[in-house]
């Protein structure tokens, strides 16, 4: 079978805000994903697959469809073994290395396909649980990519966002339930012209970016040239970007290790709170996401203290879809400009 070549993440021209939002979610999965709004043909899916391709391989328990880490709680591993009919003891488990997966969710996916199903007939006959894992099992420790998320059934979107927030997926049928880890980076894309998400669902995405086609002729030419070279000699093209890709991977690894050590002063926390109040954000999720994003940005830049620039940039990513707006008004994408107007008034 011919190997499928993945376009290098670092070779993508422009779309810096989208790339940054994806990287931040890899460093800190508790950011609850990113919603990418914009027209088609702007490298959304290319960026997601490319980022997953350069990430380090992960250790998984061999033979299980849940992408479980060998360091997972032994009770969780034992429970997952039992529901797929595998009688292997914990002492004889094998591990293997796998690439981080990008699991794509089709628009017509049902709840059972996403969550998984219980074999009720087997449960009634044998008195034991048997399940058919869903897409959330495959997405654990990976990336769940949902194209046209605004066209999905609202209930399915609710399930996705609940799992992304809690890190757990629960399958319940006729009084029988089973839960398994489901920690993943959620990436949703949508074209606003095809309809919006409900505000309650918008708010559950940690970050939001608006992307458009590049209008600079020189950059458009660069996109064409790079794509042509990639399709003509993919291995050579990928090789030419290998050093940059490895540098990014190392930067991400260092940021993940540094994040728990990042501090933020109370004065900075007050700035975040005032930021959210001044632009009109309901609830407290916006404050918390800005805090997490600012700390992640500091770690990404190799610092252990959050600076004002981190908060400003975090607000640009975390607030656009949370700003209170009038009916039929589009999402406010330039939060800094809105804050400036509010201050002038």
Structure description:
This protein folds into 2 domains: 9-57 and 99-211, P-loop containing nucleotide triphosphate hydrolases (Rossmann fold); 262-344, Magnesium chelatase subunit I, C-Terminal domain (Helicase, Ruva Protein, domain 3), CATH 1.10.8.80. 46% of the residues lie in helices and 14% in strands. The chain is built from 15 helices and 11 strands. It has helices at 16-27, 44-54, 74-83, 111-115, 120-126, 135-139, 154-166, 199-202, 217-232, 234-240, 242-258, 266-279, 285-300, 308-318, 335-344; strands spanning 34-38, 58-61, 95-98, 102-105, 116-118, 131-133, 143-146, 168-173, 176-181, 185-190, 207-211. The protein has a 5-stranded parallel sheet, sandwiched between helices. Strands 2-3 form a two-stranded antiparallel ribbon. It has a two-stranded antiparallel sheet with strand order 5-6. Residues 341-345 have low confidence and may be disordered.
């Amino acid at each position: 079978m011919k190997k499928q070549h993945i376009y290098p993440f670092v070779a993508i021209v422009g779309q810096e805000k989208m790339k940054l939002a994806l990287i931040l979610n890899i460093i800190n999965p508790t950011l609850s994903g990113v919603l990418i709004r914009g027209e088609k043909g702007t490298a959304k899916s290319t960026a997601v697959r490319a980022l997953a391709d350069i990430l380090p391989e992960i250790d998984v328990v061999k033979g299980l469809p849940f992408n479980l880490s060998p360091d997972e709680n032994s009770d969780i591993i034992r429970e997952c073994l039992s529901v797929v009919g595998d009688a292997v003891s914990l002492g004889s488990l094998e591990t293997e290395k796998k690439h981080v997966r990008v699991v794509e969710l089709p628009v017509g996916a049902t709840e059972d396909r996403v969550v998984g199903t219980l074999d009720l007939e087997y449960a009634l006959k044998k008195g034991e649980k048997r399940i058919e894992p869903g897409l959330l099992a495959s997405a654990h420790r990976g990336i769940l990519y949902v194209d046209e998320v605004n066209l999905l059934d609202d209930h399915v979107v609710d399930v996705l966002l609940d799992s992304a927030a809690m890190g757990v997926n629960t399958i319940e049928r006729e009084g029988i339930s089973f839960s398994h880890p489901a920690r993943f980076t959620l990436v949703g894309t949508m074209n606003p012209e095809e309809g919006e998400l409900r505000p309650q669902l918008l708010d559950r995405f940690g970050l939001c970016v608006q992307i458009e086609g590049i209008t600079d002729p020189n950059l458009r030419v660069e996109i064409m040239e790079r794509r042509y070279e990639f399709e003509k000699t993919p291995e050579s093209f990928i090789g030419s970007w290998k050093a940059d890709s490895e540098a990014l991977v190392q930067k991400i690894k260092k940021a993940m290790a540094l994040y728990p050590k990042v501090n933020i002063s109370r004065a900075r926390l007050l700035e975040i709170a005032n930021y959210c109040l001044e632009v009109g954000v309901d609830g407290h999720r916006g404050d918390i996401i800005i805090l997490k994003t600012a700390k992640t940005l500091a770690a990404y830049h190799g610092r252990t203290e959050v600076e004002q620039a981190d908060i400003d940039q975090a607000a640009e990513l975390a607030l656009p879809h949370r700003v209170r707006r009038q009916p039929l008004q589009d999402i406010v994408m330039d939060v800094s400009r809105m804050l400036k107007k509010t201050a002038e008034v």
